[in-house]
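INFO batch 0412 | record 1 of 1 | parsing
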Amino acid sequence: MLGGCLERSTATDQTLGAGLKLQRVFPELEFFQPVALLPLPSNNTQWWVVEKQGRVFSVLEQQGKYTKQLVVDLSDRVNSSHNEGGLLGLAFHPQYKENSQIFLSYTADGSPLISTISRFKTIAGNKIDAASEQVLLQVDQPYGNHNGGQIAFGPDGFLYIGLGDGGSAGDPEGNGLNPKTLLGAMLRIDVDNGKPYAIPKDNPFASSADGRGEIYAWGMRNPWRWSFDRKSGELWVADVGQNKWEEINLVSQSGNYGWNIKEGKHCYAPRNCDAAAGAANVIDPVAEYSHDQGCSVTGGYVYRGGKIQSLQGTYLFGDFCSGRIWGLTAKDQKDKNQRSFDQKLLIKSDLMISSFAEDNQGEIYVIHYDGEIYKIVPTDN
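INFO prediction complete | emitting tokens
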């Protein structure tokens, strides 16, 4: 994800005959550098919006009008001064209605940053109690970029965490391919057991000294937005590329996704690339696109809503720089690592797509880093 490097853009879109358009929602409201949007569990009238500088707002619909209210301001403990740091993720506990637990992911002051995963409690009025913070996990970031930062609960009830390779360019520390560091990996932890958490017994290195117990999959450069298919449970991860290629991965437990041997399906460091990738059992992405179509992928969701039947089962994703939105549709029903996909450009826009969102009915939204929220809807015809 790129932070604030582009000029303000307008929300024009071109639907390319796909029968889709972007419709502004919450039109009375604007936000400052929004990076995430989540519906309140089992609530169809309230959303939470995460701003990069450290604030969370609730958006409430009442009689067709929208109002926003501050849920928490953590800007005093969030370091958002670096391009990709800040308050980057929020997750509701699966039993949120019973235990009022919220989880936040942010970068704190460090050398230069520390990725921090914390548990909070909500109080009356749907506010987060800032004083209730329990830090679960902290990971030093050697550089100011490639922090990843999204968190979400999987269908298995465990908390998943996406962390980038720690920067700067080309992964000079070799973190992506090193399972003995938490950087450049998808993590999975059990927040309901252990102090401050437990390691799921089937994590790849749960009982091995060859890697960190928290790791679920590795070989990532900067996983920027990922999601679970609400029907199949499959984990889709968008991984931002270096110089030439952006990629989409269908992530499996124990999978190695190849950074920095490969960028997309291509050799990043050509010397001995194929042999090294083979020896490491690298899994290629299911889709990619080159930098003539964008420069920073933003992962989305598999569409499982009821409003756009032509999108049913299609994975939607976009690009922060170009504003393009694509769809991936499976050609067959093979194993996730053998399946092939049709990739289609669905919408051209001028949005800086920082994130996607999914409501409780499976409809898909697009977050514009310049402060606006849009919904993907069918065109009138």
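INFO post-check: The longest helix spans residues 273-279.
INFO record closed
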